[in-house]
Amino acid sequence: MKSKNVLLLILFLITIFSCRKIIDYKIPDSGRKLVVNSFFNSEDTIKINLSKSLHILDDAEYEFINDAVVSIYEDDQFVENLTFTSNGNYTSNYFIPSQGKNYKIVAWNDDFDEVSAIDYVPNSVLINSVDTATTTFVSQNGTLNNTIEENVYEFNINFDDPSGDNYYMIKMQYIYKYQYEGETFTYLYDIYDLKYNDVIIEKFLSNQGAVIFSDDLFEGENLNLSLFVSKYNFYTLQTPVIISLYSISEAFYKYSISLDEQQNVAGNPFAEPVQVYNNVTDGYGIFAGYSVEKFTVFVDGEETYYIE
Asked: Which of 10, 90, 121, 248 has CA 20 to 30 A from 254's CA?
C-alpha cells in the first residue's frame, strides 16, 4: 500500500512539471525620450528640468540632459532660449510669466526628438477671510471599527470662485520660533495631517500635504471651506499659521491626483497600475502653471489674531 502511494505521488509530480510552460513576455519599449518637469507661476522666472526617460526594466542611472535647446513662447510669440545651469536645470534670465496667458515650452538636442508642452497661469483668487475656532473632530477608525475624537483647530476659509472651470489646492504651514543662547531660530513647517469632512474636497495629496478640488459643485459661488488641524501641531502661543490657496491649471490638477495615486499603490503587487498624467507632446512629464494667494492667522488655543 505504501509503495502504491509513493508511485501515485511520483506520477502526480511528473504531471505537474510536464504541464508547466514558460512564457517569454516582452514589455514594449518605445525608446528613450525627453522628460520635462516644470511648475511655473507669475512670481518667479520660469524654470524647467530635463532628463532622459527609463524603461521599466532599466537598471541605468537617472540621467539629466545638459545640452538641450529650450525655448519659451508666450501666446505663440517667442520670448527667449532658457539658460542651462546644472543637473538638467534651465532657467530664464529675466522672463516672469503673467497670469491669464498661455505658455509653450519646446526642447530638443542632437540625441532626442523635439518635445513641447502648453499650459497657462491661472488668475489668483483672493482669500476673503479665515475664521478659526477650537472644536472636536470625529473620524472613523476603519481598522478597529470605532470612532476617534480629537481636539482640533477649525480653519474656515472663505473665497469667491470666478466663472468658468477652476481648480484649487490648499496647503497649510506654521512658523515655529525658538531662542538659543541669545539667537532666534525660525522654521517653516508643512502641516501634513489636514482633516476635512466636506464633499467638495476630492483628495488629500499625501505627497504634498495638501487638499485638491475643482469648482464643479460651487462654480461661480462664494465658498466657505473648513479644514481641521490637530492642536498638537502647535507648540507655542500665537503661532503663525499660513493658509495658501493655489489656483492651478487643469494639467496641474490631473498630474497631482494621478501622481499621488501612483505613489499610494507603489509596491503593492495586487493594485491596479496608475498612469501618471502627462501633457508633453512626443515626450514625458509635466509643464503646468499656478498662482497662489496667502492668508496668515495666529492661533494660541483661545483666540485668533490677524496680521495687519
From this structure: 90
Q: Is residue 14 part of a domain?
A: no
Specify the pTM.
0.84
Q: What is the DSSP letter of 62?
A: P
Give the domain extent around 143: 127-275+290-306
Give the pairing of strands 167-180 and 210-214: antiparallel
Rounded distance, CA 61 to CA 34, Å? 15
The rounded distance, in Å, linking the Cα atoms of 230 and 208 is: 18
Q: Could you tell me which residues come within 8 angstroms of residue 235 by beta carbon, excluding any fewer than 6 positions away?
A: 176
Looking at residue 60, the DSSP 8-state letter turns out to be P
How many whole angstroms from its chain centre is CA 7?
61
CB of 176 closer than 8 Å to CB of 191? no
Of 64, 92, 120, the domain-final residue: 120
Question: What is the rounded distance in angstroms from the CA atom of residue 3 to the CA atom of residue 10?
Answer: 11
> 104 forms bridges with which residues in the sheet?
73, 118
pLDDT tens track for 56-100? 545 567 799 999 999 999 999 999 999 999 999 999 999 999 999
pLDDT digits (tens, 9 = 90+) for 250-307: 999 999 999 999 888 777 767 777 889 999 999 999 999 999 999 999 987 544 444 4
Which residues, 6+ apart, have CB-to-CB distance to 70 below 8 Å?
Answer: 48, 50, 81, 82, 90, 105, 106, 107
Output the CA–CA distances (angstroms, integers) from residue 112 to 37, 51, 181, 256, 282, in the order listed.
16, 11, 56, 27, 10
Which segments of the chain does DSSP mark as H helices, in order?
2-18, 250-265
